[in-house]
Structure formats: structure tokens, C-alpha cells
Design a protein that fits this description.
With about 170 residues, this protein is of the alpha/beta class. It is about 35% helix and about 20% strand. The chain is built from six helices and seven strands. It has a four-stranded parallel beta sheet with strand order 3-2-6-7, with helices on both faces. Strand 6, helix 5 and strand 7 form a beta-alpha-beta unit. Helix 2 packs across helix 6.
Length: about 170
């Protein structure tokens, strides 16, 4: 029997005052919580994808991942700060307490919000959009569960969003 656990987000968002595009996931997977950083499952294609979009080496360490995000004026966080969840199952999420995006939005140049997958998009619309007023763009998930999308297809879709929404 699967058991719900109440879990709190335990690591900080990655951003600075130059960040212009915020990429939001739903909530850290078990592997990400173990590593204490975003997209920690070895099969998740997020880091390979971001590196491919910007033609950079795939980052290996947390510091390299942070550098890649900040170098390209991105920010990474999750919609949820705390929830009840079974393992890493986004479909099991309930009793949501959303992250407080207000400070980040005030202190950065964020003009675009990207949801990494349908669940992140739905949760953002429900819990964050009324507060932020910034519509999110839903992109296909980088999760290994989204096997219908190859890395090349993801790169095409994500490149359009990341490279065409830059503000100078």
C-alpha cells in the first residue's frame, strides 16, 4: 500500500536579480530530495536539455548547474513548498502549500514563467497565477515518465520558449 507523506521543500530556488525566465517544476522527486537539488533523478533530462539549448557542456555538480542557470538569466524553483505526496508521484499531490514567489518576482527581472510539464502548469494556474498575474507557458516535461518526447523534440520546443522570450 502506498503511503502519503507530508514533505516540505528543503532547498532554495536558483535565481539572481538578472533572472528573466522562471522555470517551475511541481515538487522535488525523491531523488532530488536526496541530492538536495533540482532534477536529481539520473533519467530526468532537464540538465541535458538546458545544456543543449544553450550549447553548453552538461553540468555535473550542483555548482555547475547553478552557474548554467544563472549564466543564461534563468531561475529554477517549484510551485509547491509543502504537500502530501506518495514517493515522487505528481498525480498523488494533495494538501498543497505553494512557494512564495513574491520576493523573487520583485527582486529579479522575471518576465516569463515556464511550467515544466502539465502538472506544474495546472498547479501554477491554481495557486500562483492569482498572486503573480504572470501567465505561464506550459512546456513538455523533462521527466523520464514523459517518454513520448525525445530529447531532440524537447530541445526544439524548449528552445523556442527560452531563446525567443529573451528581453535585452
Amino acid at each position: 500500500m502506498d503511503i502519503y507523506h507530508t514533505v516540505k521543500h528543503t532547498f532554495d530556488p536558483v535565481w539572481n536579480n538578472q533572472s528573466g525566465i522562471l522555470i517551475l517544476g511541481t515538487f522535488p522527486s525523491v531523488k532530488s530530495r536526496e541530492q538536495n537539488f533540482y532534477y536529481g533523478h539520473p533519467q530526468n533530462r532537464f540538465w541535458k536539455l538546458i545544456a543543449a539549448v544553450y550549447e553548453e557542456p552538461v553540468p555535473e555538480t550542483i555548482d555547475e548547474k547553478k552557474e548554467l542557470i544563472l549564466m543564461h538569466h534563468l531561475a529554477v524553483w517549484d510551485v509547491i513548498d509543502q504537500c502530501d505526496i506518495i514517493g515522487s508521484s505528481d498525480s498523488s499531490i494533495r494538501n498543497v502549500i505553494p512557494c512564495d514567489l513574491e520576493g523573487m518576482l520583485k527582486e529579479s527581472r522575471i518576465h516569463t514563467v515556464i511550467a515544466n510539464g502539465t502538472k506544474a502548469y495546472e498547479l501554477y494556474r491554481k495557486y500562483q497565477l492569482p498572486k503573480t498575474g504572470i501567465p505561464a507557458r506550459k512546456l513538455p516535461s523533462t521527466s523520464p515518465a514523459n517518454a513520448a518526447w525525445s530529447l531532440e523534440r524537447l530541445k526544439e520546443e524548449w528552445s523556442r520558449a527560452l531563446l525567443c522570450t529573451r528581453q535585452t
